[in-house]
Amino acid sequence: MAVSVTGSFTTTPAYTGYFIPTLWSGKLNVKFYATTLFGEIANTAYEGDIKSMGDKVIINNIPTITINTYVVGQTLSYEVPAPSIVELVIDKAKYFGVNVSDVLEYQSQPNLMDMFTSDAAKQMAISIDRDVLLGTFDQCHASNKGATAGVISGAYDLGTDAAPLVLTASNVLQLFTAMASVLDEQNVPETDRWLAITPYVRQLLMSSSLAQAYVTGDASSILRNGKIGTIDRFSLYVSNLLPSADTDEDFAGDAEGGTQKRTAIMAGHKSAITFASQIAKVESLQNPNDFGTLVRGLNIYGYEVIKPEALVLALYSTDGSATT
């Protein structure tokens, strides 16, 4: 088997001991969730059910029970509730591989071990976050996106591929409250709601009336304390990894889609997306092509939108030629 190695990291003096894969695995898992966006906005209720890549978890959504009007003396009718089935398939994987001169050094000096596990977890989180966001951002209920969002009213314009919104400091809060209202019309619980925006949208928000303390109810302006916190029941998160599309491209980069540059804003409830991840294996082996030890790790994962009614999508323009 050919092994490709780039760069090197030499440690001296050499130490004796044993490489402990489970220790590395545990550190990676903890640091991964501390970094990833989906550790905050998605639920991981089914993570304990996965063992290896290719596993499938069957999720039963609670059925809606019909409520009937009762008339004295009538014959009662009974229904057989049939839960809908959603499959969470663990069919994706990412890995890392590093070459070290003496892996025992990392076992003996926690600061070096932390350095490598922290960076591996951070890079893994960035890669998986980008994949999950792109795979889920438009999987919301049909009434939770577009120019006529709102399952009851159809009154909210959240932007489309052809006509993304133009956001300003004066209307960005209006968009957030509209997205909250879309969830309200779907009877989504008010707790555990989240909103993911880009740094550009955050800058607009910081320039809006929210920057005044009396709007948030805080003791001081967010321009002073730097915290946004909760906005209309949303816990706010800022990410550079939200899907975007260039002119004449879709969000996957193909030559199709809208005619303007556009970027997604996602909001929802923590029940909307389920995400499962596991550090499946961390191991060491001798480099067959050179002196040194190879350390590699495999992370398997899967994700699924299991409550599309609890997910909302808005599209805003990053192209000055867009229309309002």
Q: How many DSSP H or I helices?
A: 8
Helical content band: 25-40%
How many E-type strands?
11
Shape: globular
At the first level of CATH, the class is Alpha Beta
- The fraction of residues in strands falls at 15-25%
Write the layout of secondary structure elements.
Layout: H1 21-35, H2 38-41, E1 56-61, E2 84-89, E3 92-100, H3 104-108, H4 110-136, H5 172-185, E4 193-197, H6 199-206, H7 213-216, H8 222-225, E5 230-231, E6 234-238, E7 244-245, E8 262-269, E9 273-286, E10 293-305, E11 311-317
Parallel strand pairs: 4-6
Antiparallel strand pairs: 1-2, 3-10, 4-8, 5-6, 7-8, 8-11, 9-10
Helix pairs in contact: 1-4
Q: How would you sum up this structure, described in words?
A:
The chain has 324 residues and is of the alpha+beta class. It has a single domain (10-50, 90-324), classed as phage-related protein like fold. 25% of the residues lie in helices and 24% in strands. The protein is built from eight helices and eleven strands. A hairpin with a 2-residue loop joins β5 (230-231) and β6. The model is unreliable at 7-18 (pLDDT under 50).
Based on the model shown, name its key terms.
6-stranded mixed sheet; alpha+beta; phage-related protein like fold; 324 residues; 11 strands
Summarize the structure.
This protein has 324 residues and is of the alpha+beta class. Helix content is 25%, strand content 24%.
